[in-house]
Each structure stands twice: as C-alpha cells, then as structure tokens.
Specification:
Oligomer: single chain
Radius of gyration: 31 Å
InterPro entries: FAR1_DNA_bnd_dom, NTF2-like_dom_sf, NTF2_dom, Nuclear_transport_factor_2_euk, Ras_GTPase_bind_prot
Structural class: alpha+beta
Distance between the termini: 82 Å
CATH topology of the domain at 7-205: Nuclear Transport Factor 2, Chain: A
GO molecular function, one term: mRNA binding
Domain NTF2: 10-126
Order of helices and strands: HEEHEEEEEHHEEEHEEEEEEHHHHH
Number of helices: 10
Strand content: 15-25%
Keywords: RNA-binding
Protein name: NTF2 domain-containing protein
Length: 453
C-alpha cells in the first residue's frame, strides 16, 4: 500500500499545475472548477466580485488576460479541512508587459471529487502597491519598498523550508499525469487523490467536456459549450433546429442522429420530432448487414459461380457490423407550438466519453462530401487515378488532412456509390447520352448496334 499524501503535497502539486496552465493555456483553466464553484476577483473599486458556474468562471478568467503575465510563486501552504477538503494559500509575484511587479495572495479550497479534487472556492487579492523593476534601483527607500524587501526575505526562507520538508515536489510523476502541459495542450487539469498515490486521476484531458459521478460510481459526461440549446428555445423549422443541434454536437464531441416523429391524426405536418445522440439505443444481437447494399461499406462484385451479371446477386452475403450504441440518453425533443418548433425536453448528459478535440475531424457530422469534392474526385478518376490518390491531392490543395473535411474511406465510398449506380449500364448510359444529343441537335448523327466482339 502506497503512503498517503499529505495536504501539503496535494497543495504543491495543484499549484504547480494551476499556474502553469494559467500562464500557458488560460482558456482551459475553467475545467478545474464546477458549476457550484465560486471564484472571487478584485474589481477596480477594490471590492471582491464573486462568479459562479463554469461558463461564468471561464469568461471571468479570460477577461483578465493572464497569458500576458508571468507568475513567480514564493510560498505554498496547505491544511486539511472538513470532509477531506484541502485549504491552500499561495503568495507570489505577478509581472505584466509593463514590467510592473505585483504581490498577490490567492486562496483555494479543493473539495473531494471522484478520487480527486476540484476548486470549490477561489479568492485572489493584491497585497502590496505596484513596483516598476526599472525604477526600483533608483526609487526612494520608502516604507513600502522596505516592507517588500522584508516580505521577500520571509517568503524566501519559507520556500527553503518547504522544499526541505517535501523533496518530491512534482507528485504528478507518481500519478500518470504529464507535468509538461506544453506537450498536452488539449487537456483538463488533473487533480490527484490525497489518500493514495496510485489512484485514477480525475481528469477529462483528451475531451472537450467534463463529467460527474454519482454515488454508485456511474459517470455522466457533459459538453462544455457556450452556445447550446435550452428548454424553451424556439426554431422556425425542424431543419433549423437540426442544424443547430448538429453544430452543438460538433463542438461538444458527439454525433447526432435523427429519430422518430409524430404527426397528428389526419395531418401531414410533423408536430413532435426527436433527435438523439448517435450512440442512443443498444446493439441488436446477431444483426447483420447486406454486403451488396448501396451503403458506405458495401462490397459490389460478381458472384462466386459467375453465372449472373454484375450487379445481380443470387445469394445475399451477410457480414457482421460493429455497433457503437451504448444506451446513451442524450436527446432533444421538439414540439410544434403555433408556427414554430419549441424545445420541450433536452437531455445533455452522456453515458460515454466525448470525442477528443484532436479526433473531431473524424466525426460523421464533421465530414461533408459536398459537390465540389465529389466533382474533383470524378475529374481525378477520369485521369485514371483512384480515390486514395484523389484524397492525397485534396490534402495538398486544402493544406492538410485535417482541413479536407473527409477521410480516405469517404472518398472510396463515393467512388463505390458511383459504381453501384452505374452497375452494368455503363455502355447504355453512353448510348443514351449520344441519342439525347441527337434529339436536341439536328446536325448531330449517331448510330450504334449491339453485338459481341
């Protein structure tokens, strides 16, 4: 059994992570908080302004432009609090582009959360007047400067004592949490357990949302998006609502699937419409897919006995199809009220992890084989190049694989759909095109005959 971590070790590990993210990636720092967290920052008047909810805290942090500052931590003190919480006090320096040094004190209350911690309370205050580094050597020896010098000596002594007491300052190395955040810019703050070093970290580093955990250990993931549908919002049409929900899913890390609908008796207009997460429902045991169907994964070809024509099949071949459905309950329900459609129910929680930000280009809703790409692949095929080469050419034209908007499999599927559509009518289509030109152009003549060569 590994030794339990002290409150001081937890506080130091958290502070190392917190201020590194605050300086390098402040737009991600809000993921250390939850909706019930409270963040306090001083206003111009001197009063402390409190902010709650993740979205509010995110906006508040971004408004201060912490990425333009440099932080130097002089002391970190931590104590155990009620119900396993940890109280952390930080004193340090903050220097901006104007080279003005400010001494600050910041207080954190780290509350336990699913084998780790989140920031329950956060208060920040400046405790000294501003000092300009260029003017410090020539400034008069006022009482403020003397107090700063005394404070520097005191903090330096405290830092030395702290280092002697806790030689393993970076305890992330014991928790499978990378301490170099520059190599992992797309992640959340990882907070460690205070009772055991070898624990699962509480983080959603590779995803764009956050999760909560109930008493039974079941996790529910929520997208971290500012623009999202809410109950009561209205849309002009079902297509508009679907487009908005798809855009929300792209940012949130999940795909959307259209569900059923309800029409009033004797009416033709849809009164209730359902949209689901693509992982809604459960896989059907023993379900197979026709390999010869015209879908994105079909296989078209001649039968094994060669007795039938291309495109005709004597025996349907079945293949196994992997299913990613896991019973996700995330959904959006529209109901027609007057001439608009209103969101009557919205389930935001997912029972599966959300898609990583670096993998969002592979989501179905993020891939679009539009007319321009289809026409380009058609032109490439006329030059006797396959869809794989066409995909690489589009990569050069768009400036990268992540900017193409489709995958190589999408290009192959597009070629396959064209082949399935043509089938064994490739020669007949050419004849019909020439005859059609003959009908509309009196000076054009064509004749053909059928036979075997």
């Amino acid at each position: 059994m590994a030794p339990a971590l002290s409150a001081q070790s937890v506080g130091e590990a958290f502070v190392n992570m917190y201020y590194q993210v605050l300086q390098d990636s402040p737009e991600r720092l809000h993921r250390c908080y939850r909706d019930n967290s409270t963040l306090g920052r001083p206003e111009a008047s001197g009063s402390l302004s409190n902010t709650t909810t993740i979205n509010g805290i995110k906006a508040k942090i971004q408004s201060h432009n912490y990425g333009d500052y440099k932080f130097e931590i002089k002391s970190v003190d931590a104590q155990e609090s009620l119900e396993g919480a940890v109280k952390v006090i930080v004193i340090g320096y903050l220097t901006g582009k104007d080279n003005i040094l400010k001494i600050f004190i910041q207080s954190f209350l780290l509350a336990p959360f699913d084998n780790g911690y989140f920031v329950r309370n956060d208060m920040f205050r400046y405790i000294e007047s501003n000092i300009n580094h260029h003017e410090q050597d020539h400034a008069p020896k006022t009482q403020v400067i003397e107090n700063v010098a005394v404070l520097e000596n005191y903090l330096s002594e405290q830092a030395d004592v702290t280092q002697e007491k806790s030689p393993a300052k970076n305890i992330f190395e014991f928790c499978d949490v990378p301490s170099d955040w520059e190599e992992h810019p797309g992640g959340d703050a990882a907070l460690i357990d205070a009772t055991d070093i070898e624990v699962e970290t509480v983080r959603v580093r590779d995803h764009v949302g956050y999760y909560t955990c109930d008493d039974n250990g079941n996790r529910t993931w929520y997208p971290d998006c500012v623009e999202k549908p809410v109950e009561g919002c209205k849309f002009v049409s079902i297509d508009q609502a679907y487009s908005f929900y798809v855009a929300y899913g792209k940012k949130g890390g999940f795909d959307i699937r259209k569900g059923g609908q309800y029409q009033a008796a004797g009416g033709k207009e849809t009164t209730i419409k359902y949209f689901y997460c693509s992982r809604e429902g459960l896989p059907v045991k023993g379900k197979s897919v026709d390999k010869n169907s015209n879908d994105d994964i079909s296989e078209e070809g001649e039968s094994s006995n060669g007795s039938i024509k291309f495109g005709e099949f004597k025996n349907k071949q079945k293949r196994r199809k992997a299913s990613f459905r896991c019973g996700c309950l995330a959904k959006l329900i529209l109901k027609k009220v007057g001439n608009v459609y209103e969101v009557t129910k919205l389930e935001e929680g997912h029972n599966h992890p959300l898609v990583a930000e670096k993998d969002m280009i592979f989501m179905k809703n993020s891939r679009n084989m539009g007319y321009t790409k289809q026409h380009f692949l058609y032109q490439v095929s006329n030059a006797n190049f396959g869809p794989a080469i066409g995909f690489r050419l589009m990569k050069q034209l768009y400036g990268g694989f992540d900017r193409v908007g489709v995958t190589k499999s999408d290009c192959k599927n597009n070629k396959k759909k064209i082949s399935v559509f043509i089938g064994d009518r490739d020669a007949q289509m050419a004849v019909e095109k020439l005859i059609n030109r003959k009908l509309h152009s009196p000076g054009f003549y064509v004749n053909y005959y059928k036979g075997w060569f």
